[in-house]
Amino acid sequence: MYEVGDKVVYPHHGAGKIMKIEAKEVLGQQRQYLTIQILHNDMTVMVPVENADRAGLRKVVDSDVVDEVLSVLRGNPTKMPKNWSRRYKHNRDKLKTGDIFEVAEVVRNLAVRHADKGLSTGEKQMFSKAKKILASELMYARNFSEEEATAFLEAVLADIHVELTIADEPQEVAQVV
Known about the structure:
The protein is α+β, with helices and mostly antiparallel strands. It has five helices and five strands. It is globular, with a radius of gyration of 19 Å.
């Protein structure tokens, strides 16, 4: 199912590349492991092949799916709980899925809240992590460098902030004389 060189997403950590598939003996049992290099935080993760699906491992989306992700980012924010701890749990659960659309939704909602009311310390950390996870997948999907992917995502989020600001400004009414 997976091969060396495949670009994959590991929930909570982001996108990476399978560096090797090897047999290892752990607790007296021989198992196949995927060794994944997560680029954005310079982490190496080993996942047993038989548990890859259960762990939420999946291949990076194709380039054409990025347009759908951008639609989610530019969409209207989801109604969120007012209580920050419930909001945090709601967003954390979405990030755990590893689904790129759920991650994009969390990034969008936190970006809108950050621009509108500000974020708690925990939400700021979550926002930063969610952006890194999303940018790491965009990097592989669009063949960007890490810096290009981050700049691309920040530009999209800046456009959202500009659109929100324009929508909130009072509109001038022209007088007809």
